[in-house]
Amino acid sequence: MAIRKNGDDFSSGKLGGINTYKLKTQIISRGITKTTKPPTVKQLINRQKFDVLGHFVKPVQPFINIGFDLVTRGTKHSPINEATSVNYHNAIKGEFPDQEIDFTKATFSMGSMPVLEQVTVQIVDGGLEFSWDPGWKIGSMLSSDRVMLLAYCPANGTASFVLDGEKRSKGKDYLEILPSQDKVILHTYLAFIAANCKSISTTIYTGEILY
Prior knowledge:
Elements: E1 2-4, E2 11-15, E3 18-23, E4 26-31, H1 41-57, H2 61-67, H3 69-72, H4 79-90, E5 92-93, E6 100-101, E7 119-124, E8 127-132, E9 146-153, E10 158-162, E11 172-176, E12 185-193, E13 204-210
C-alpha cells in the first residue's frame, strides 16, 4: 500500500510491484521481485552478516549518528548505512553459519582527527574511568576537543555511552555502567570530537573489561 505524505508529492510504500521510498533528498523506486530458487551459499553468508550487523548497530545508533555524520554529509549514505558498510568489511569474524562481530575491530565513528593511542580504562564505583594524556596533541587536536566514550556488552546486546564528555585537557572522564547480576565482558571505545563538531576521530578500541 502506498502512503502519501502530507505536503509531499511522492508516495512511499509498495504499490503494483514497486517499492518507493525516500533516501535523504532522493526518491527511490525499486521493483519487487520474488524467486522460488533456494538461496546460494554466498547469499546466506551475506544475509547472516547483515542480520548480525543489524543487531549490532541498534543499541549504538545515537553514537553512530554523530560518529559517522561528517563522512556522510553531501553523500547518499546515512550514518547507519555507512557504519554498517565499514563494519561489514572490517569487523566480522568466523565462518558461516558462525559469523559474529570482532569487537576489537568495530568502528563507531570515523574521521581525520589524529587518534590518541594511549588510553587506560579502569573500574571505579558505578562505572568505568577512561584516562589519557591531556598534553599529547598533534595535528588538528585541540584542548577543547570533547571525548566520546562507549562500552558495549555483547552478552545482552546493550551499550552505555557518553556523546559529549569532558574536554581533552581534563585527561579523564567517567562512564556510568548499570550493575548486572552476573559478571559480563564490556568492550570499550573512545573518540574525540571538536567543540564545533567539524572534526572527529575514528574510535579506538580501549580494551576488554570484566565488569
